[in-house]
Amino acid sequence: MKGIRRAAAVCLTMTLAVSTLFGNTAWADMPQKTEKKKCVHVHTEECYGGQDEEATSSQIGEEPTECTHVCSVESGCIRNTAVSSGMNEDDSETGPDDEETNDQKNSADKAEDDEKQENAPSVSTPSDMEDTTVPGGTVIPAVKSQIFSWSWYDPEENLLDGKLELSGVTEEAQPSFEEVTEYLPEAIIAQIGEESKAGKEGKLPITGWTCNEYVQDEEGRWPLEGTYEFAAELPEAYELAEDVEAPVVEVSVTGDQAALTAYDPRNVVLNVNFIEGETFKSLAYNGSEFSSYKNDVMNLLNQNGITVTSLGNDSFQLIMTNASIQNLELSRGTWEIVLNESNVLKGKGTEVGGVGLKIKENVRATIKAGTASASLTVKNSPTTSTSRDASSGIVVAGSLTIESGTIKAIAYAEQNSDPVSGAIVVQSNGTLNISGGSVTAAGTHKNGVYVRRNFQMTGGSLTVTGSGKPGIENEGNFKLSGGTISTKSNSDGIGFLQRGGSVTIEANELNTDRLNITGNSSFTVASGGKVTSGSTIIDSGTLTNAGKFVSNGPFEKGEGGRFNNTGTISGTGSLPDDLKQKPGNITVNQAEISAGYRDNMSIDVPSLAGIHQPAKAGNLQYELAEYTGSDKGEGTIDKESGQLKVDRAGVFKIKVNTQESGLYEAGKNPVYITLTVNKAAFPDHWNLIVTATSGIYNGSKGYPAATISTTDIPDGARYEYQLKSTKSTDDLQEDQWKSECPKIVNVAESDQFVFVRVTVNNYESKVFCSDNRTSITKRRFADTKVTLEPENVIYNGQSWEPKIKVVENWQGASRDEVDKADYTIKDWTYWTGTDNMIVKERKNAGTYTVSLLGQGNYTNESNKAILTIDKCKLNARITGNSFDKVYDGTTDIREEQNLSVQLYSDSGTPDSQDVRADQVNLAYQSADVGEHNIEAANITLAGDNAKNYELTENSTSIKGNIVARDFASMTVSADPLTYNGTEQKPQIHASVETGLSNVSPDAVVFTYSKNGVDYQSEIPGFTDAGTYQVYVKASMANFNDAVKTVNVTVQKVSSSSGSHSGGGKGSGGKGSGGKGSSGKSSSVSSGTVTKDSQKGYRSEEQGVITGASNQAVNDGYSHWIKDARGWWLRYSDGTWPMGNTGAFHWEKVNGRWWAFGAEGYLSTGWVYDTLYQGWFYMDENQGMLTGWQFINGKWYYLNSNHDGSAGIMYSNRRTPDGWYVKEDGSWDEEAGR
C-alpha cells in the first residue's frame, strides 16, 4: 500500500523534475484533456454469471466474466470535461498546432480509463430523470436516490488518510487544476437507497471537482504552497442523506520558491535504509550538488548522525557519529568513511539483500577512526531460512581498506544459507585491505570471512569466528604481511578453509583452531611468517613451511596432500609419523652420584651426573623412576631442567629420555641415574624439655602424659611417645612408639616416666625423657551429680526401681557418666515426716533418698538423689438410675434416683477396698423446675490405701432436670351479671391446690379467654344478656398450666345503669393509673360519659376512657398500645396524640395526666416543657406526679395546685409547707423550714 502511494508521489515529482530539466512549458500552459470516460454501469449478477438484478457485496471490485456493457456517450460513460474545467465546448484555447498532441493524450487517457473501468463496479445514472407536471400546473420534483454512506474509490492509492500530498512544486513545475484532479478519485463506493432506507452498494462516478481557492494569480501562476479543499460533484440523480459528510479531498501543495535540485537516479552515489522493513533511499551527485527524491536523504542522514560531503574528483567523505541506521550501500566513487564514537548498521532494511554494508564494484572505500574509541558494528538480516539466503554483514565488490578503528561484522542465519555469505564477504571482483585497527567477524551458520578475490593484511588485528561454517574460507589470493589473524569455528568446525587460490603468510602470525587445505590450492608460510594451528588437514593441495609452523594438534595428510618443510616445526601437536626422525643417544659421565643433605637443597642432576643432550633430538625429559627401598627419598624434579628439589633425604632413581618433537620421535633408549642424599646429624642446639603431667582426676577427658618445650627444633618435626616405669632407654621398644601423646586418665596410671623421640626430615632422630613421673590424685565424690530416671512418679501400688545415673559435674568437666566401678550404693531411706527410715521397697507415696559412696578415682564421700512418689490423682463423677425428678419444692435427691459418687483416674477405677468416696452430700443446685446441676460437695476419701490418693477437686456435678408438677386440684365459679347496656366484667372465683405441704398456691396467676386460645390477664366483658363460657387458666412457676371453664350469665333487667365498667390504663394491680392489669375486674367512675368521634368514650373527670391494653379493636374506646419503642395511646379512630420538639402533648387518660413526645410515645422520667417553662416528672404507671416525691435518692416538690401549673417542679424557693428546695429542685436539708 505504501509503495503504491509512493509511486503516485514519485510520478508527480518526476513529472515536475523532467519538465524543469528539459524546458517544457509550465503546468498552466500544457494542453488540457477535453474528453474523459467514467463508467457509470452497475454490474449485476448477470455480469457475474447469475440471475439477480444486483451484484452481491462480496463481488464488488471483482472482474465480471459475463458483462457485455460498452462505454459510450449514449450510456453516459463518456463526457465532455471542458465544462467542468470552466471552458465552453467550442473554446479554442488549444491551438491548431496542438491537435495531434491532444489526440494522442486523449487516446492515452481513454486507454487508461478503459483499464480502470474494468476493475470497478458502477451504479447506472438515470438519464431520463426529470420533474413531472400534473394537471393544474403543479410541478412534482423527481425523486433522487440518497447516499447513506460512502468511501473513496482509489485503486491507485494516491490518497493517504483521505488526503493528497503534492511536493517538489517550483516556479518551473506548477500543477494546474486539471493536473491535480488527475490524481483525485474518479468515483466513490456508496450505499444507495431511497426514502431513508439504505439499499445496494456500488461505485458512483464523480462528474467533476470544484475548488474556488485553487486558481491562477494575475501572472498566471498556480499555487506553489498551501492546503486546498477539492469538492467532488456527484450525478444529479443522487443526493447525500442527512448527516452524511460531503466528499471532499484535502490537497497539500509544498515546495519553495527556488528551483529544487533535479534528482537523477543515474547519479546515485549511495543507497541507505533508515527504518526497519522499509526500502532504501538514494542519494545522487551531479558533479556539483547532492539530490534525492523529495530531497530528504541529506536531512535524514544528518538526523541519524551521518554527514556526506564531496571531496572533488568523484571522491566523497562520509562521517558517522553515533549513527544507528539499517543499511548502507556505496554505489559510485571513492569514499573516506570516518568513524566517531559507536555506530551501528542493523541490516534490516528491504531491497538490499539483507546486507548491512556493501561496497559495490568500481567503488573504493577507506574506513578510519576519527576518535580513539570509534567503532562500527555491521549486521545482516536473513532474507530467507533456506540456502538462498545470501545476506551478509559487509560485502566488498569493489575495494575496501580498513586503516583504524574497531570494526565488528556479524552475520547469522537460521540453519541454511547461501555458501558465499558471511560476516565479511570479498566478492569475485573485490579487494579487502586491512592495514590497522581491530576487526572482528562473527558468523552463525555463516562464514566469518569469505574471500573470492583479494585479501591483503599489513597491520592491525583480525578476529574471526564461525559457527556451523568455517571462520575464514578462501578461494582467492590471501596474503598476511603484517598484523595478526585469529580464526576459529565453534562446534568442532574449521577455523581456516583453503579451498582454492593461494595463501601466503609473510610476517607475524595466523592462529587457527583448525587448518584445512583442499582443492589443489597452495598454503605457504614464508620465512618470517608464523602459523599456529590446533589441527591441520591437507586433503589435497600443498602446505609449504619455510618459516615457523606451530602444530598444537593432529596433523593429517591425505593422498593428494603435500607437505614441504624447510622451516621449523614446534608445538604440542604432532607430524605424521612418516615425517619424523629418530633422535640420537644420551651420554652420561657418572650414573651413580651422592650428596649430603642441606636445608632447601636443590641438586643440578645434569651437571652432577654429566648428562649431554644429543644434537638431533627433542629436548631432554627428566622424571623420577619407581624405587621400592625403605630409604626412598622424596622430592620433585623439573622435567625440562633436571633440577631436583629434595624434600626428604634418601635414594632417588632418575630416568632421562629425549622428548618427541615436531621433527623427532621420542627417545627409545633412556638412561637411569641413582642419586643418594644422606641425612644430616641432629644439631646440638636443638633441645627438648619433657614435663610429665600431674593433676586431680579429670574424668574420661584425662590429661596428656606430658608437655614439651622445644628450642630451635623446626616446625614439622615428628614427636613419638612411650611411658615406662624406669628412666632407662634400654627398656624402650620400637613397636611401642606412639605418634600422639598418650592420655593419662585414672589414678592407677600414675608414677611413669615419659619418653619423647624427635624426628626431623633429613636429620638423625634423638630421644628425650621427663625428669618427673606422672601423678593423678583422687577427686572428691561430691564433684559428681547423682540423678534418678525417673525422679518423680505417681503411686501405682508397685515398688519403683529408678535408674541411678552419676555424671561428672565439676567446672570444665565433659559431663560424661561416671564408671560404676567408681561408686557403690549405700542405702535407700523414706521420710516419715519426722525422720528417715531405711527401706527396701519404694511403693507408698512420699519422698525417698538414695545414698552413694565414692571409690576408685573418687574419695570415699557420700552423694545423694531423691525419688518422689506423688499421690495418685482421682476424679469424682456422679452415677445412678436417673438424674431427673418431679418438682417437690426441695433440692433433695430422691431415694429412687439411687445416685452415688464414683472415683476414677487416668489408669482406671481403683479397688473400693483401697479407696472410696466418703461423706458425700448430693443435692440439686435449685429447687425450681428446669435443668440444674446436681452437686456432690465436701467429698472425702476412705479405704486401706486412702493415704496414697488425693482428689483433683472435692466436689463434682452433673446436669439434672426438675420437671413441672401438676396441680392437685382446681376450682372455678363466676357471679352473675345484670344487663345495664354497657360491657361488664364478672367476678370470677378461682383457686388451686399444689398437693405439697411446703409449697403455697399464693403465687398462682389466672388468665382468661373466650375461645380457649387467646388468654389475657383481664376478665373478658359482656354486654348483652345471655350465658357465656369463659376459659380460666391457672399458671404458677414449677407447675403445669391447668384450664377449666365457667359459665357467666348476664341477666335481663328492665332498666340500664349510667355507669361505664371497663379497665382503664390505671385499672388493676398497681393502683390508680397503672398499666398492668391483674385480671381482677374494676370499674372507673366516669360521671357523664360521652363518645368523641376521635377519642371515643370520655368524661370530664376521667378524660379519655381506655379499653383493654394492646388491642386495636374498633370498640369505641381508645387503647394503650406497647411496641418495641414504648407505650403510646391509640385513639378510637386509629390516630394518636403527638407533641412537638420541646413542647409535649398533654392528655388526661383514666383520670391521670400523661405527656406524649414528638414521635407520639409516652414520655417518662424528667421532662422539660418549653410551653409551660418547667420540669415535670412522669411516672410510667401513674403519669404526672405531684406533691413531695422521693426520686433517685432525693426529695422534690412538684406543684399540686390545679391552677394550670400542676406538676411543675419547685426550685430555689420554699414549698407551700415551708421547706426550701435548691436550684436543682432537690430539698435543702440544711436550710430547714
Description:
By secondary structure, the protein is mainly β. 5% of the residues lie in helices and 42% in strands. The protein contains five helices and 98 strands. 32% of the residues are buried. Mean pLDDT is 84; it is low at 1-38, 50-62, 73-120 and 1054-1086.
Would you summarize the structure shown here?
The chain has 1233 residues and is mainly β.
SSE blueprint:
Elements: H1 2-21, E1 35-37, E2 78-80, H2 99-118, E3 132-134, E4 138-140, E5 145-153, E6 163-169, H3 177-181, E7 187-194, E8 197-205, E9 208-210, E10 226-233, E11 238-240, E12 248-255, E13 268-273, E14 281-285, E15 290-291, H4 297-303, E16 306-312, E17 315-321, E18 324-325, E19 327-330, E20 334-340, E21 342-345, E22 357-359, E23 364-369, E24 375-379, E25 394-396, E26 399-402, E27 406-412, E28 422-426, E29 431-434, E30 438-444, E31 447-451, E32 454-467, E33 472-474, E34 477-490, E35 496-498, E36 502-505, E37 508-512, E38 515-517, E39 522-525, E40 529-533, E41 536-545, E42 548-551, E43 555-565, E44 568-570, E45 587-588, E46 592-596, E47 602-604, H5 605-609, E48 611-612, E49 620-625, E50 634-637, E51 643-648, E52 650-658, E53 671-678, E54 687-692, E55 694-696, E56 703-704, E57 706-711, E58 718-724, E59 743-744, E60 753-759, E61 766-769, E62 775-777, E63 784-789, E64 792-794, E65 803-808, E66 823-831, E67 836-839, E68 846-854, E69 862-870, E70 872-879, E71 884-886, E72 900-904, E73 916-918, E74 921-924, E75 930-937, ...
